[in-house]
Amino acid sequence: xxxxxDLIQAAEVFVKKELEHEPSGHDWWHIExxxxxxxxxxxxxxxxxxxxxxxxxxxxxxxxxxxESKEAGVDKVRGWLSDQGAAxxxxxxxxxxxxxxxxxxxxxxxxxxxxxxxxxxxxxLDAIGAIGIARxxxxxxxxxxxxxxxxxxxxxxxxxSSDKSAIYHFYEKLLKLKDLxxxxxxKKLAEERHQFMEQFLVQFYKEWDLTEERK
Length: 215
Hints:
By secondary structure, this protein is an all-alpha fold. The chain has one domain (4-209): Hypothetical protein af1432 (Orthogonal Bundle), CATH 1.10.3210. The chain is 60% helix and 0% strand. α1 packs parallel to α3 (49-58).
């Protein structure tokens, strides 16, 4: 069985190699921020820090947006963990977390372990606030999405569709995340980030509509 510290170090090297130049906002620095948040939340909530850190490091290796399919991504992580000699219980815990933690339009079931809740919260915290705004526009640019399409109704559009705008993503996901967090400390951290997004949208619409300039 691989030593925990060695496995974390190996995961760091593996993920850096895979995602260092990922242009959609799911790059190494996103992983590093989620990892640090996961470790912090694990400490505050009493979760297993090793499982939280390892799952945080590997979570976007399995992301269906970066693979042919969700199954292909999960198989990739499973194969890597097996190659590293990870214990069976470690593999199962990590795979369970990363296969169910994504937002997926709000369709995925709730996380069933404290570690899963911690890692999901860490990932969702990085999707809101100033960094969340930056990542939204990076992702939209990478997918060829426009900034804003006034008057367009995307309510019946598939969640993964590239036809929607960056601004619409705030309403279909980002502004919902604060109320979907699992842990007490994550909810506390989310308050300021959520308010910042609301303030950003107010300013965005002022500039888009030339509200101040017409006074």
